[in-house]
Amino acid sequence: MTSYEIRPVGYVESPLVDGAGAPKQGFEGAPEAWLVFDPGVAEGARDLAAGDDLFVLTWLHQARRDVLAVHPRDDPRNPVTGVFSTRSQDRPNPVGLHRVRVVAVDGLRVRVRDLEAVDGTPLVDVKPVIADGR
Amino acid sequence: MTSYEIRPVGYVESPLVDGAGAPKQGFEGAPEAWLVFDPGVAEGARDLAAGDDLFVLTWLHQARRDVLAVHPRDDPRNPVTGVFSTRSQDRPNPVGLHRVRVVAVDGLRVRVRDLEAVDGTPLVDVKPVIADGR
Fold first, then answer.
1. Looking at chain A, which runs of residues are DSSP E strands?
2. Rounded distance, CA B113 to CA B101, Å?
3. How many C-beta atoms surround the C-beta of residue B26 within 10 A?
4. Could you tell me if A49 and A100 are in contact, meaning their C-beta atoms sit under 8 angstroms apart?
5. Is A96 an 8 Å CB contact of chain B?
6. Is A131 within 8 Å of B68 when comparing Cβ atoms?
C-alpha cells in the first residue's frame, strides 16, 4: 500500500519530559503546555484564540510501531487488548489525539490546557472541536 | 524537521465516491461504510465490537497540502480562516478525524455509521472514544 509523509507543523513545549511520568490522558492532570507552530504555517494558525476547544494531533515519536495488543494503561491486571480498542501510544501509526483548551496566544505560540504530550513531541495537525465532542 | 511515514492499516469502503458530493461531517447524513483492515494488523482490530464509539483517523488522499487558509465549508460568504481553525480537508497534514459508531463486525471488516470519507480513503488509526468525547 502507498505510504504518506507527515511533515510536522510545529512541536509541543511542555514541562513533561518523561513519558513514564506523564498522565495517561490530558484530563488526568496534565500541566499547561505550548503548541509552537513553525513559521511556515503561520497563516494556518492565525485564527486560534483563547477559549478555543481543539483536537491536537501529535506524532508520538517515542512510541513503538510494532505493537498490536497491550494491557490497557500498562496494568497487567487488564486483559491484553487490540490496540485499536485502546489509547495506547504504541500502535502502527502512533498519532496522538488530545483534546485541549486554548488559554492564551502569543504569535506562533499557543498555550493550552490538558495536553499530556511530552516536551518536543511533533505536531501533526490542530482542528477545532465541533458539535458535541466531534 | 524530521518527517514520519504513515503506513495505512486498511482503507474505507463506502458508497461515497465523489468528495464534492459527500457530506462535510459524518453526522450530516453520511451512509454506512466499512473499515477494512489489512490482515497484518488483525490482532490490533480483534476487540472492536458492535456498539463501540470510535475515532477513525484517515489520510485524506485527495486533499491539497499547500493550503493554509480557506473559506470554511467552501462557502465564499464565510471569511477566510486559518485551516487549524477549520475542519477543511485541505491542510498541511491531511489527517481526517471522524467519530463513528460500530454497527457490525465481520472479521477484518468493521461496519460503521457516520463516516463521511470517500471510498478508498486510507485508514491511519482507530481509537476508542473515552470520557466525554475525548
1. 4-6, 10-13, 33-37, 53-59, 69-70, 81-82, 95-106, 109-113, 122-128
2. 5
3. 23
4. no
5. no
6. no
- Give pLDDT, residue A19: 66
* Residue A66: DSSP 8-state: S
- Could you read off the pLDDT of A56-69 as tens digits, one per residue? 999 999 999 999 99
Instruction: Say whether residue B82 is in contact with chain A using an 8 A CB cutoff.
Output: yes
C-alpha to C-alpha distance for B12 and B85, rounded to whole angstroms: 26
Query: Could you tell me the end-to-end alpha-carbon distance of chain B, in angstroms, rounded to an integer?
Result: 29
Instruction: Please provide the distance, in angstroms rounded to a whole number, between the alpha carbons at the two ends of chain A.
Output: 29
The 10s digit of each residue's pLDDT in A53-109 is: 999 999 999 999 999 999 998 899 999 999 999 999 999 999 999 999 999 999 999
To test the contact with chain B by mutation, choose from A57, A93, A105 the residue with the greatest count of B C-beta atoms within 10 A, namely: A93
- At which residue does the C-alpha cell 492499516 appear? B9
**Residue A19, amino acid:** G
d(CA B96, CA B59): 6
Cell of A106: 502569543
ipTM: 0.93
CA separation for the pair A65, B88 (Å, rounded): 28
H-run or E-run covering B42: helix B42-45
Single pTM value for the model: 0.93
Average pLDDT, chain B: 93
- Chain A residue numbers with beta carbons less than 8 Å from the beta carbon of B43 are 68-69, 82
